[in-house]
Every structure is written in structure tokens, then in C-alpha cells.
Predict the 3D structure of the following.
Amino acid sequence: MMSKVITISQQKGGTGKTTLAVHLALSFIKHYNFKVGIIDTDPQGSLGKWYMVRSENNISDENLTFKTASLWGAQYESKNLKKDHDIIIIDTPPKIESDARPSIEASDLVLIPMTPSHVDFWATEPIIDIAKKANKKIMIQINRGNQRSKLISKTNEYIAGINVPATNTIIGHRQIYAASMGEGRTAIEKQKKGNAAEEIKKVSDQILTELQ
């Protein structure tokens, strides 16, 4: 498989973009032995802070490369990383349409995390429109969800109604995701088995199938 770029984008904040980015990165490394580049384009720098804590705790992985860039600079950084990385993941801030475009145009797949809420529904469609205009593959990821919630069925109905593919796995609202991030780790590094590790593995598998 040639090097691929995944842009994680969503206009609304609080959907777990950064957590999803690092968990997918470590899943690709652990399960596929891929070399992965992660690019932080968010001025808040959450991805960079996670990487800094990781470095301070001496958690190193030669297959993981961190870069920071503006949204426009992400195109340049991802192009360079593609020369010797298998997967590049661009973590984007909550942004209006024009700001999101450069990172989306640099991607092979636009992954849109969405929590089960009507506010997220409303924020999702502008990103979908940009991705469609750029002729990019799109996948929606239901994130921070509760399988027993009534909103899950409404979320699935919404996704079916807009005719955009989604992953087959709901990523749960689990404490281990946030706890591991605070340590510069991921849930899949803290637990060899468990619901979180299983969820991320399934999502990363499906994403790679979509990219091939």
C-alpha cells in the first residue's frame, strides 16, 4: 500500500479528534508495524502536549513521528512525511469551512468523529461538503458513544439519511481513553485486551481496508 493521509476533521469541538488521532496512530504501529506521522494543526496544541508528556516519560517509538504545522502547512508536511511513512494523520482544530479545506485537500481519507448529539449532526455536513467537492473518501466515526443511549439509533438514522459511510464500530465513552492520554500513552498501550483496545483495532482495520 502506498503512503496514505488521513485527516481527522470536525467543525465542533469536544468530539475527541486528538484522542482518535493518537489511538489510530499507535494501533497502526502496534498491529501493522507501520511508520506513522502525526501532524498537529490545532493552535491549542493538545496533540503536541500529549507527545511532550510521552517524551518526558521516556515512552519512545521509532515508528512514530510528530510534526506541527498550520492548516496550510499541513499540505507541505504531509507531502514530506509520505516519502518515508506509511500513514500520516492530520489532527485539525474546530474550524470554519475555509480553514478546514487545505488539510482535507491533502488527505486520502477524511475521518469525521461525531458524538451522538444533534449539535454534532449540524456541524458535520459542512465538512462533508468540502470533502465531496475535493473528491475525497469520507468516513464518519461515532465517538464517545453509549450503546444503550437512545441517541445512538438517531445517530445511525442521521448517517443513513446523508448517505455517507461510517465505520462499523462505535468508540465508547470510556475513562481509559482520557486517562491514558494524560500519561502520554494510549488505551491500547495500557491494556493488551479490553473494550477500548478492541474498538480501536476494529476501526483501524476498517480504515485500512477503505484506503486500499
